[in-house]
């Protein structure tokens, strides 16, 4: 039986480790940095960026000899190379194509990006500007290197490269070269050369962790959803003994439900969970909206799914987590684990809205089987700040709890979370969360994954 919650050990740690909503309207969250990466605001103030930091309109990011990766609130990913300066000129995402904006400048250096929802419904809403050409998108992934000229390669979709000499459409697998602002862009055979991260002993620059979602690879289709790529090496594979937790809320007033499978058989196609079975329950993906995994846990969202034998109809927006549960948590008595959010699905609402960025942290006391959770969830221009407490099942890997406060939720709201630990010594915590309020325009659902950053015995 779970012991009572004891907040004294960890309350101060939460306040210092997780400041809520550092920017009023953040454009992106920093997924990782290597070396000293700085941001200079429109007012000239400079700050060092680290994982979890937020950047917004007017910020210029300078990687120096390091690297950085950012996830924008529309789901876009931008990976900046060493010696790169990248400015967020104007950014706004509300899920409204007529109002969304994503205007950026590459001052120097190189980047790779997988675009998000901004620009999908209105191509004029997105552009990347340099002094010699401007790049627009048609739903894509591309790389660009810029010095005095531009080399660009499209990995998926298409881009329009335009300058004073004219416009050129660069499609899947093609590369282009732009000599200067008045010379027309031309197709070339040479791919854009963005070197891989150097070895970890090469000075200040170290490779990013291998569990970064961007490194696993993902592309976006015309509708802005994530296209799953097969061939993720070293990931979860088809087999037995999995925990599969899922939740869904029927849109437009339905009740929805949960999926709670333990000791289940899980079937994967590449990196994607496509089916989970246990006893009479048989859940199968019909359409996959997004899929991720880091080799220990997987998480994603089925846009639609069906359950054979179950007494349910079609399921919509099923957020899930999957993995084999930790079996050694009993040996962590006397230890406190700190966790930071390392992956998430785009939250969805029962009114049909798809949200954006999610940040969070978790502190777990394995002696009292108690936990504190803090999260920021962006939905339709509103960032909801959630704080909650929970408990871990004694002798097991499952946890659950409720949110005790929510900024921007209004007067009438409620929310809870549940999940399980996976990997050795609880290396990962996979969580499903939901909350509802008038300002959220219904019930918000999502999946989140937390990576253990430290495990120590607290000082008395």
UniProtKB/TrEMBL annotation:
<protein>
    <recommendedName>
        <fullName>FecR protein domain-containing protein</fullName>
    </recommendedName>
</protein>
<dbReference type="InterPro" id="IPR006860">
    <property type="entry name" value="FecR"/>
</dbReference>
<dbReference type="Pfam" id="PF04773">
    <property type="entry name" value="FecR"/>
</dbReference>
<feature type="signal peptide">
    <location>
        <begin position="1"/>
        <end position="24"/>
    </location>
</feature>
<feature type="domain" description="FecR protein">
    <location>
        <begin position="59"/>
        <end position="159"/>
    </location>
</feature>
<keyword id="KW-0732">Signal</keyword>
